[in-house]
Amino acid sequence: MKTKKGQETYNNILEAAEILFAEKSVSKVTVNDIVQRAGVAKGTFYLYFESKEALIWKFMDTRFGYADRWIQDIVTKGYSDNEICDIIDYIVSFVKKHITILKIMHNVRFHSFLGTRRLEDKYMKKWIMPFSLWLESGRLEGKLLINDSQFMANYLIITLHELFDRVIMDDLPFSIEEIGDELKVLILKLLK
After folding, report:
1. CA end-to-end span of the chain
2. Which of 165, 161, 155, 164 shows the shortest CA–CA distance to 187?
3. CA angle 175-177-183, nearest 5°?
4. What pTM was computed for the model?
5. Other residues' Cβ atoms within 10 Å of the Cβ of residue 117
6. Are 126 and 192 in contact (CB under 8 A)?
7. I want to staple 153 with a disulfide (CB 3.0 to 4.6 A). Which of 34, 79, 107, 132 is the partner?
8. Coil/strand/helix, residue 177
9. Using an 8 Å Cβ cutoff, are 128 and 157 in contact?
10. What are the tens digits of pLDDT across the range 54-112?
11. CB-CB neighbours of 152 under 10 Å
12. Structural domains of the chain, with CATH
């Protein structure tokens, strides 16, 4: 268990890394850059992280841990139009709140540094199971008109990721809110 000062040091290192990752390619950021920005000794860095790659994974887990918890809780959501729209609203607010960090993470150099497959295995694949369970419950209750919950969960996660990825990287001429509004209409049509 970290002391209060230890937690502050840990957070300072993560914040320094975040600032640096926003300024330049993740592959060009060195441990020396991070410790200099954080104002800590290199040895201190290695008390908390065994490598820059380990720091990056912790950075993502720290910044998005509560999103993982929310995704796991999706199975408790209902199937009314309002509840489905609330799910989309949560995703839209999450993207808006974390746009800077998401831009860092969606940079092609960030993906190539960690490996796209490893990122997908760590995040996207673990989000499909809760969506699949939620969809299957709705299908069994007769509230969602879908044939294959696993397929639909994959489809929804990939579609949501790709759309928001393109908006985050300014590849689409739509705002996050516009994407959210259109997704509500589309997803309600797909599920009901």
Report:
1. 48
2. 155
3. 105
4. 0.79
5. 9
6. no
7. 132
8. helix
9. yes
10. 998 888 888 777 777 888 888 899 999 999 999 999 999 988 988 888 887 776 566 67
11. 21
12. 1-49 (1.10.10.60), 53-191 (1.10.357)
